[in-house]
Design a protein that fits this description.
- This protein is mostly helical.
- It has 2 domains: about 180 residues, Growth Hormone, Chain: A, CATH 1.20.1250.20; about 190 residues, MFS general substrate transporter like domains (Growth Hormone, Chain: A, Up-down Bundle).
- About 80% of the residues lie in helices and about 0% in strands.
- It contains 15 helices and no strands.
- Keywords: Cell membrane, Membrane, Transmembrane, Transmembrane helix.
- Its main location: membrane.
- It holds the Pfam family MFS_1.
- InterPro entries: MFS, MFS_dom, MFS_Efflux_Transporters, MFS_trans_sf.
Length: about 400
Amino acid sequence: MDNQNSSSVRTATGRREGVLIALGSSLTIMGSVMVAPMLPKMGMEFGPTHPQAEMLLPLAITGPALAIAVCAPLAGWLSDRTGRKNLLIIATLLYALLGVLPAFLNGLDGIVISRLLFGCAEAAIMTCCTALIADYWHAEERLKFVNLQVVSIGLVGSAFFVIGGVLGEQSWRLPFYLYLLPLLLIPFFMRVLWEPKHHAAQQVNDTTSRVATVPLIVGYGMIMFGMVLNFIVPIQAPALLVSIGVVSTTKIGLSAGLSLLATLAGSLLWPVFRRSFGIAGCNALLMALIGVALWLLANANSYNKVIIAVAIHGVGAGLMVPNIMAAIMNALPAPVRGRGIGGFTSCLYLGQFISPIIVGILIASGTDLPGAIIRLSIASAAIATIWLIVSFFKGNKRTEMADKPAA
């Protein structure tokens, strides 16, 4: 049997596919964490010579997120039409080439454009990797690899935040060469990954499968608003620390590092909480944790209280992505899975992008930064209450079904 035919009936039986997909997914976090520490040095070089440097420099970091939000649905559609594996390989190649390009550019405009195109490649990688997890595995196996994906993203992000900062001490251009590393993944993608059978016969067999529209829409809304809440800590916490007299960059950096560690802890705890409370119960828990954390953050008057708030927030944030992603995967039949996950990816990054905008709107409405965060914490608590009620009724329904005598 040739490779083409064998790929149509092959099933994932080992961890190799999972490890490769997790590494591929981790490329998306590399897109931002390695550039963020370079912003001051880039400002020193381009600030005096470019009249719009103050506006364009942040786009070097936030631009890819916006590009992902715009391009992810298209990437999902392409993966449904042309296949996940080939699109992932092409996107990884483009990721490496566009990622390293700023190291050779001398104009800020060109750097920003290259970063926006780089975000399009990221969109395809994230969408294909997540869709492949849903294609390859089912039930508990799928949830296990969803969690592996999220944990890997956190670990790689933490490592490359440090590596990028160290290399950037020499030159802001040097960390961009790290974007060539994913080229090493391409031969393994070609050899180990296989194309799921989504076309022809399977599409005929799945014609009765329909998208679970309500869970899908709810999941999209949850991940978008969740990312608005999640990005309050990395974006707004430094300003809050300064406002209470903490100006040490070391202390501010430690709070950011603790947030990442707490997020990893939340991701590792997710399987335990999901088995105990279910997906709806986990949604209630994570939104409650984030709501409490934001309230504590807004009212903190010392560094130690900020640290406590950041730690609680990180655990909630770590629970969020795998829990909502699992619900999205369950709502999507195979023929439209790429498009549906592309929508999820789009909402995730759109939430990140609009987080500071929403905080700014709340401040403009007549409050200060702590007041804006308190309003969002109340909204998070309200959503947690709704999910708690949903979880209660789902639990009662399961109990009634279990107690119902067999016909």
